Amino acid sequence: xxxxxxxxxxxxxxxxxxxxxxxxxxxxxxxxxxxxxxxxxxxxxxxxxxxxxxxxxxxxxxxxxxxxxxxxxxxxxxxxxxxxxxxxxxxxxxxxxxxxx
Length: 101
Known about the structure:
This protein is mainly β.
């Protein structure tokens, strides 16, 4: 993608990439780095979970989620008009934790 090319460094018989560098573009053709990481350490035959003491809280359930709403239109052309976005979304004011059925 332009000057920003996504790359993955891999090893034979290794279960995941050792270094990815992934790019994408938004509708204005601006490069955005999606993600990058580098494997710094690897140990074989680990029997103890290294994440056992890490607590990830469950998200709080949303209350009063709107289920009856009008869809809001959003229309926009790409910068060079190579495509045109026509999107309907709702509700207009999104609430964290609410999901559409």
